[in-house]
Amino acid sequence: MQNVLFRRAIRKLVATFVATMFTAIVMAGFMVLDDSSVGSNYNLGNQLIVLSLIIIIYAGVIILIYGNVVSIGLEWAQNKSLSKNYWVYILLHGFFGSAPGLLFQNGMFMLFGGGIALGYAGIDRWLSIRVLKQKGIKWFILIPILIYGIAWGCFQMISSPLPPLPAFTKEDAVEFATAGKGTEVDDFPDRIGTWQEIIIDGFHVKRETNAEEIANEKYIVTFTETWSIGGEVSSRFFLIK
């Protein structure tokens, strides 16, 4: 008896996993294709993974709890009845799968729920036949994983290549160097070659910002401050690489 219950539990879990994976792949695939039609067509394979993981969380919980409770109840009722018509067993899964959508009067929810339930019941029935023939079913887990990988690869292949990043310019370097607050360069101009001339305590002060490229998209930003009074001139500078 315990062995029968254990095999049934394994069968239900495998059916849950396979049905959840196929549901996630199909629904996420349609969502990705719909998004790509309006311009979001970069890294479609990665988009498939993200969306399918979200669907797996929600659909997996529903199938695991509601779906298996209904399925176990239907299987118990079938075993107690004289009728062994498995088509009735499968169609009843579809009815109960669409019941929540019917309850909330949501046609799309009813359609998806019924379709997923029919798929689950078909998988469960096929697995039960293999169990009766004493054939393994655990390898069946690999099928949706393989299809998942193929789907990811296909979506990545049809994705548009990512546009190149814009070049990092002198202006970008100056903007980066002057972005902080509370630093020694706060009083310097935030644009290249901009002189700032002011009078401080009688001193004529000039501040200038420049940038020099030292390698490909690598710069040294120089902040120079010069002050003069009565013919005396002095200066200081800061370098940021």
Largest sheet: 4 strands, antiparallel
**Cα end-to-end separation:** 75 Å
Order of helices and strands: HHHHHHEEEE
Cα shape: rod-shaped
Percentage of residues in helical conformation? 55-70%
Structural class: alpha+beta
| Rg, Å, rounded | 34 Å
Q: Please give the number of β-strands.
A: 4
- Spatial order of the strands in the main sheet? 1-2-3-4
Low-confidence stretches: none
**Mean pLDDT over the full residue set:** 79
Strand content: 15-25%
Q: How many helices does DSSP assign?
A: 6
Instruction: Return the domain count.
Output: 2
Could you explain how this protein is built, in words?
α1 runs parallel beside α5 and α2 packs antiparallel against α5. A hairpin with a 2-residue loop joins β3 and β4. This protein has six helices and four strands, in the order ααααααββββ. It starts with a helix and ends with a strand. It has two domains: 156 residues, no CATH class; 71 residues, S-adenosyl-L-methionine-dependent methyltransferases (Single Sheet). With 241 residues, the protein is an alpha+beta fold.
